[in-house]
Amino acid sequence: MSQTTIPRAAVRGTASGVIFMAFFGTLWAGIGIRGMQGWEFPVLITLSLLIGVILFIGAIVLIKNSRQLTNEVIKKDGDRWRKKNRWFGIIFSLEGLFIAIAAYICVSTNHLNLFVPIMAFIVGAHFFPLASLFQVPIYYITGTLLCLLATIVILTFPVKIIINDHQVMAWWVSVGFGSALILWGSGVIVCLRGFRLLSMARNGAKNNKVSTRL
């Protein structure tokens, strides 16, 4: 396998996915912490930020190390990558639109508690076209888990619970932390995939050098 088989944009695209998982995973953890209604334990806040930062650093390392890779494949097949980026923009925009519509309906009908699990379901659903678009199978699992989490919480969990006279938003806590774990876990897997691509590219480059010398 030659170095040109794995273009720089492929690794950087993987890094972008890791950044996405790190950022939104931490946001979901924030929703879970908010749902604790005053029991925002410092250790949870610190741990959430730490996980997000570690994933972000991993993505930056991928981007930095990808500088040695060529963009030759991208130049040969630029139209395909432009179409992928265009579809990504469409999918991401539709996700935002559906979330905005869901928020409006939930507020208008006085069912704001439903918004968090519905948002998780929408976020999960948007991973399915992304999995096909970028050929990342783990996104199918990510989307399925998020949709299942939202559905199970709505059908089986109480909206709120009382612990020692303290009210906790059970839906927010379960969906928030559950979604964070799913996204962070997916981020780790995608990050490892990026480093595997880098390793394959380096091995291919070494093999090319050996062949040239022979």
> What does the average pLDDT come to?
86
Structural class comes to: mainly alpha
Topology, number of strands = 2
Fraction in beta strands:
under 5%
As a whole number of angstroms, the C-alpha radius of gyration is 20 Å
Order of helices and strands: HHHHHHEEH
Measured as a percent range, the helix fraction is over 70%
Folded structure, characterized:
A hairpin with a 2-residue loop joins β1 (160-163) and β2. α2 (42-65) runs parallel beside α7, α5 (115-134) packs antiparallel against α6 and α6 (138-156) packs antiparallel against α7. It is built from seven helices and two strands. The longest helix has 44 residues, at 170-213. The chain has a two-stranded antiparallel sheet. Residues 209-214 have low confidence and may be disordered. With 214 residues, the protein is mainly alpha-helical. Helix content is 79%, strand content 4%. It has helices spanning 8-34, 42-65, 72-76, 78-108, 115-134, 138-156, 170-213, and strands spanning 160-163, 166-169.
Explain briefly what this protein structure is.
This protein has 214 residues and is mainly alpha-helical. The protein has helices spanning 8-34, 42-65, 72-76, 78-108, 115-134, 138-156, 170-213; strands spanning 160-163, 166-169. 79% of the residues lie in helices and 4% in strands.
